[in-house]
């Protein structure tokens, strides 16, 4: 180890010793990951401290190490930002997916409700059609029965009138016969009376 290595080693040891409580505290609170803002701030502070010591000691190697640490911290910071951005996009995508799923579920529920309503409406309409058809059939049968009864009444009236006319015709025929018989009896009686009178004239 050369003379220039001693202060460089001392600077590194001092910085590590100074960072020890910071790193321990970050680990205890769960923020000791490479991408955490506190860890990046501590790394950047270490790189700045190394760079300042390198300037004071005029140590180019220490200065180069400090620059590497700065670049590494920048890279980790960019990676942390990218991870955070990716996580944000993932969360946003998950939220949008959940919203679309909820909308799809809502549309399915609404479609099911509309289908159930259409089914119920169709069932009610079919029931009403059946009721109307049954009522129409009942009225048709009632009208048919009424027409048949009226027809039967008309036939009965016609038959009664025909029988009455036949009886009247028969009664008239009997009356005419009785009148003819009465006229014949009267003629016969008159003829007998005339014969008796004639016989009486002859005997006197």
Write structural notes for this entry.
The protein is mainly α and 204 residues long. It has helices spanning 5-28, 37-57, 60-203. The chain starts with a helix and ends with a helix. The model has no long low-confidence stretch (mean pLDDT 76).
Which helices and strands, and how do they pair?
Blueprint: H1 5-28, H2 37-57, H3 60-203
Helix pairs in contact: 1-2, 2-3
TL;DR of this structure?
This protein is mainly alpha-helical and 204 residues long. Helix content is 93%, strand content 0%.
Q: Specify the biggest β-sheet.
A: none
Structural class computed from helices and strand pairing: mainly alpha
Strand count: 0
Helicity, as a percent range: over 70%
Shape: rod-shaped
Q: If you compute it from the alpha carbons, what radius of gyration comes out, rounded to the nearest whole angstrom?
A: 68 Å
Q: Please, how many helices?
A: 3
List keywords for this structure.
mainly alpha, 204 residues
């Amino acid at each position: 180890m050369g003379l220039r290595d001693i202060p460089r080693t001392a600077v590194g040891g001092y910085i590590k010793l100074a960072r020890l409580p910071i790193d321990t505290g970050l680990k205890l609170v769960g923020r000791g990951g490479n991408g955490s803002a506190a860890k990046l701030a501590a790394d950047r502070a270490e790189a700045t401290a190394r760079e300042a010591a390198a300037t004071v000691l005029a140590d180019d190697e220490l200065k180069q190490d400090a620059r590497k640490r700065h670049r590494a911290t920048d890279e980790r910071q960019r990676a942390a930002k990218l991870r955070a951005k990716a996580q944000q996009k993932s969360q946003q995508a998950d939220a949008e997916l959940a919203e679309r799923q909820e909308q799809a579920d809502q549309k399915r529920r609404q479609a099911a409700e509309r289908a159930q309503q259409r089914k119920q409406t169709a069932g009610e309409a079919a029931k009403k059609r059946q009721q109307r058809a049954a009522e129409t059939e009942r009225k048709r049968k009632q009208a048919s029965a009424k027409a048949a009864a009226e027809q039967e009444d008309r036939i009965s009236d016609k038959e009664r009138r025909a029988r009455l006319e036949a009886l009247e015709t028969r009664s008239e025929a009997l009356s005419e016969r009785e009148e003819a018989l009465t006229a014949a009896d009267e003629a016969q009686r008159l003829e007998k009376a005339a014969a008796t009178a004639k016989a009486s004239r002859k005997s006197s």
